[in-house]
């Protein structure tokens, strides 16, 4: 009986091992695993504990110099510590993981890690017989003296790598180490940081947004943050000579957003795309964590869609979305797989009190990136028919469900790239129109669909120095849809028009009056003021105009 069990176990083990080896081998060659899995392998293995950590450095031009340790024993974290930027060197953190119940007498569980040149024990009073063990790149490990720990919450269960002097770790249970790994990097390569998790991954419940007791709800739209791996590069900072000409892009962007969040205390943030400036984000995860931390720290729910730059770094749209989706306070979703793009979804904001009914529906759609048919339609891509069909079906389904409500219900929408109708210069506009809208050359009819379904306003990003709202009217002259811009918020994105200051837009909703008021807040200058404040919806109807 025992022998049979052992034999089956061995057979199963061998089968597992072959499968894993094959997967790793094939994945290395052809990237068969989806990026979301490929890039996050170290983080998602409940029940595993880390028993060793090391760094393997290799020479990238010598073909026999390998950057991979024995895959039977070691799991490699798929991030080159030189960010793929060094001509000569590559280096990867490797971890040895074991199932807790399979620990044997030789195994020591990692309890803590420190980074530095000196043995951390030098500055420490004797703590039993645990010693710090040295590993490459300045890593020190403190491991258990006994293989069986009893208290698995103390064990390090996952290790990850982040980049940049400004790297932050917003994941619950995780802790980023203060000091960078010691490598012979040049200044242009961002420092790398170790982040560790102890215990089991925590559950991250999704927030349920709801209209406040006073009937109000405030949405902040942060457009085009353009965050990097590391502090990034300032583009067209305004005013040019301010602060002695010194400008740290992401520091300034995050300070601005943090300040305005504290001041305005929005109930929800919409990130309308280009949060990540792909070109300067060789580790997109580090960029994502920077904006996520702002909201998580303040317990503010946020919903993100993508622009044309988010996926130009190390993560594609699907991987970015699965990362953002997994973070606390995130309402972001990839949306149905059968619909083009990643991030076609809606967010319901419930009526005040304990009602399970929705008061506001926010539709968020993916406007993709560059034109798939540059010859006929230059510039940017457009919303596809299946997305518009999905939107109409969803809106009609929800409308049916909302009919039974006794209270007012309103619909709003957010996209990244403006719609062709944003070009209508005959429309009444409030705010600045400083550049021709870079809407797609092909009109797939989303504006008409929004009007048909009774959406009151749509807001986009993408053109950083436009911050106007434009009023679309019916052929009879009745206001039917406001089309707004958020106005660029990030210093890592362009802003090259004289006197243009970074800004964010607010939508203040008052359900008592079924009213929407919008305004912007500036990063520099008259920062206390509500800029271009206007009522755009009243008694549930689109209003405004001369
Ligand atoms: C480096 O290149 C590899 C292979 O293209 C990629 O998987 C990885 O995300 C890149 N960035 C880092 C930080 O390793």
Explain what the structure shows.
This protein has 546 residues and is an alpha+beta fold. The chain has two domains: 48-198, Vitelline Membrane Outer Layer Protein I, subunit A; 216-542, Metallo-dependent phosphatases (Purple Acid Phosphatase, chain A, domain 2, 4-Layer Sandwich). Helices cover 18% and strands 25% of the residues. The protein has helices at residues 2-30, 35-38, 249-264, 284-297, 317-325, 385-402, 446-452; strands at 48-59, 75-76, 89-99, 110-115, 132-135, 139-143, 156-163, 174-176, 192-198, 216-222, 268-271, 302-304, 345-350, 358-364, 410-414, 428-430, 457-460, 469-473, 479-485, 503-510, 515-522, 531-538, 541-542. Strands 12-11-10-20-21-22-23 form a seven-stranded mixed beta sheet, covered by helices on one side. The radius of gyration is 26 Å and the shape is globular. The protein binds 2-acetamido-2-deoxy-beta-D-glucopyranose (NAG). Residues 78-80, 83-84, 282-283, 314 line the site of 2-acetamido-2-deoxy-beta-D-glucopyranose. 2-acetamido-2-deoxy-beta-D-glucopyranose is lined by residues 78-80, 83-84, 282-283, 314.
């Amino acid at each position: 009986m025992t022998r049979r069990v052992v034999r089956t176990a061995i057979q199963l083990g061998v089968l597992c091992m072959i499968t894993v080896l094959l997967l790793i081998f094939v994945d290395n060659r052809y990237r068969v695993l989806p990026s979301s899995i490929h890039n996050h392998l170290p983080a998602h293995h409940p029940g595993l504990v880390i028993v060793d950590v090391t760094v393997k450095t290799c020479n990238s031009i010598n073909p026999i110099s390998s950057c991979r340790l024995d895959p039977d024993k070691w799991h490699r974290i798929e991030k080159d510590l030189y960010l793929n930027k060094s001509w000569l060197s590559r280096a990867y953190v490797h971890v040895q993981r074991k199932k807790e119940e399979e620990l044997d007498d030789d195994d020591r569980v990692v309890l803590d890690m420190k980074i530095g040149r000196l043995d951390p024990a030098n500055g420490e009073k004797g703590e039993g017989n645990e010693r710090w063990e040295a590993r490459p790149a300045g890593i020190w490990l403190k491991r258990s003296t006994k293989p069986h720990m009893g208290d698995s919450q103390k064990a390090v269960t996952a290790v990850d790598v982040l980049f940049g002097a400004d790297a932050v770790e917003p994941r619950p249970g995780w802790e980023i180490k203060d000091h960078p790994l010691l490598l012979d990097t040049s200044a242009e390569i961002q420092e790398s940081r170790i982040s560790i998790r102890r215990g089991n991954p925590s559950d991250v419940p999704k927030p349920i947004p709801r209209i406040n007791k006073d009937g109000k709800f405030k949405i902040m739209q942060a457009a085009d943050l353009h965050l990097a791996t590391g502090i990034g590069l300032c583009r067209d900072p305004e005013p040019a000579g301010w602060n002695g000409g010194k400008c740290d892009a992401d520091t300034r962007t995050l300070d601005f957003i943090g300040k305005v969040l504290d001041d305005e205390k929005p109930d929800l943030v919409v990130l309308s795309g280009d949060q990540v400036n792909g070109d300067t984000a060789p580790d997109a995860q580090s960029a994502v964590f920077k904006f996520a931390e702002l909201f998580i720290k303040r317990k503010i729910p946020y919903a993100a869609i993508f622009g044309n730059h988010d996926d130009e770094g190390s993560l594609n749209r699907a991987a970015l979305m699965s990362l953002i989706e997994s973070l606390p306070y995130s309402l972001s979703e990839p949306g149905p797989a059968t619909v083009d793009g990643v991030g076609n979804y809606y967010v319901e904001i419930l009526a005040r009190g304990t009602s399970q009914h929705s008061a506001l529906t926010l539709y968020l759609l993916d406007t993709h990136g560059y034109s798939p048919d540059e010859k006929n339609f230059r510039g940017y891509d457009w919303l596809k028919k299946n997305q518009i069909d999905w939107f109409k079906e969803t809106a009609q389904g929800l409308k049916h469900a909302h009919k039974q409500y006794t209270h007012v219900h309103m619909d709003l929408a957010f996209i990244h790239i403006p719609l062709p109708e944003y070009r209508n210069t005959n429309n009444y506009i409030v705010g600045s129109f400083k550049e021709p809208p870079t809407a797609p050359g092909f009109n797939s009819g989303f504006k008409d669909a929004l009007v048909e379904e009774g959406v009151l306003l749509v807001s986009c990003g993408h053109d950083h120095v436009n911050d106007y709202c434009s009023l679309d009217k019916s052929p009879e002259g009745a206001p039917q849809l406001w089309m707004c811009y958020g106005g660029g918020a990030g210093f890592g994105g362009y802003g090259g028009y004289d006197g243009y200051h970074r800004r964010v837009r607010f939508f203040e909703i008052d359900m008592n009056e079924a009213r929407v008021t919008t305004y912007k807040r500036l990063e520099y200058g008259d920062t206390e003021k509500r800029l271009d404040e206007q009522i755009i919806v009243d008694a549930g109807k689109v209003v405004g105009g001369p």
